[in-house]
Amino acid sequence: MPGRLGGGGFEGAGCSSLSPKIARGKSTAEKAIRFLEALKIPEGPKAGKRLKLAGFQRKFVEGALDPANMVAVLSIGRGNAKTALSAGLALGSIMGEWDAQPKRDVLLAARNRDQAKTAFNFIVGFVESLPKAKRERFIIRRGSRLEVEYLDKGGGLARSIAADGRSILGGAPTLAILDERAAWERDKGDTLENAILSGLGKRNGKALIISTSAPDDANTFSRWLDEPPAGTYVQEHRPAFGLPADDADSLLIANPGATEGIGASLEWLQTQARRAIARGGSALSSFRNLNRNERVSTEDRSVLITVDEWLTAEVAPDDLPDRDGPCILGVDLGGSRSMSAAAFYWPQTGRLEAVGTFPAVPSLADRGAADGVGRRYSEMNDRGELTVMGSNTVPPGPWLAEVVKLAGGSAITCIVGDRFRYAEFSEAMAKANLRVPFIWRGFGWKDGSEDIERFRRALFDGCVKTRPSLLLRSAFSDAITLIDPAGNHKLAKARSLGRIDAAAASVLAVAEGARQVARPARQSRGAVWA
């Protein structure tokens, strides 16, 4: 019977022999697949059964070992055998199954030693399942160094290392595996990656970069997926954003092994998804990131709102409430080079709209590259959510005049903004010929905590509705709150290059709308004659 590797392994099937004779003319990928499918599962209920690669695994092996590619990137949900697959390739590499170079060198790199040990243990497990004649050609070191050395065919060595670039400077690996790359510490991880890649060219080496999704677009692993350089093979199993956590079709996109007996079944994934939905918070965020392979932050203790909380506010354009009643304009004026953002809120219906503006220099494409978000700003511009005005700065007066036009004739009852920019607001409103009250609010603990709490309450009560907006999704994903010892919150960025201007403008507008709705209506008193 076919066997399966427990804990996120391969589906297995019968094979004739451990080391099948490879016919001449076979490609490197074909040799690798033949070798992998001759291995035996080292542990689990199907231990001792032979392996059979799933379709998505074959596809990755073919892309990774294509002579035109130096780097192969795989992003897939947890438990789909990505580490086991790469460990099998590492074993074949040091055994010289498709590479005749002497003294082959394989690196198993991870954030720390414990994570690197996972891939090391897979290799050891495969080795221990080999026939005795094969096993005797290996030396396994488990002390201060985690190494597997092969003493035949010119020799090969697989080493496990942590994310410290100094540990491999001067190396010349024939194969490098960067495991769970999205979880690496930013500076040390980039140092290690650069050191590894710089050594690959010496011996025509290859790098396999594998991980579940990073929490944001700025992560180095995300940039490998979004902006792959020449000679890079990318295979990403990530569903569309905004779908329910227990949606079956999208779960299978992130977990293709579920239909081929690898890892968790679809029923188990849906059960865990519903449990995470019921618990909410970090449980739901972690499930989306790890099991659905979505770019969702797993840190929820200080986020302004979670992705699922925000999704409750998004509705189809046909279901969007009308622009009825007074309109409140929340404004976050940008600095000399940053974004200026405005949010319109109609408290009677709960409708929210937002727009952002950048100066023309540098271009949106260059800003996206500098901020680590790829083409996101250009996509916002195509959707009409982000505009460009001015050269090096956004002129406050003309910009505010253009923003007001977007209200479509609705009566703007007030403008809400940062009190420390009061002079700039006054000048801008005068130039835009706006004669409405200006309500200043601080972004510190006092005003900020109240505005954040009112915004959250309005959102949770279903009093905020907006069409799907990439601008707002991006802003809220970068927005966190800092908490003082008394439990007060103030808005802040999750990362230095984050753009939370649209989120700040929305918080100001919705909070003021909540205050206006909460105020009791004044009742006129009839004349009293003495």
Automatic annotation (TrEMBL):
Organism of derivation: Jiella mangrovi
Full protein name: Terminase
Domain Terminase large subunit-like ATPase, residue spans: 72-214
Source domain of life: Bacteria
Gene3D superfamilies given in the database record: P-loop containing nucleotide triphosphate hydrolases
Residues covered by the Terminase large subunit-like endonuclease domain: 263-512
Pfam families xref list: TerL_ATPase (PF03354), TerL_nuclease (PF20441)
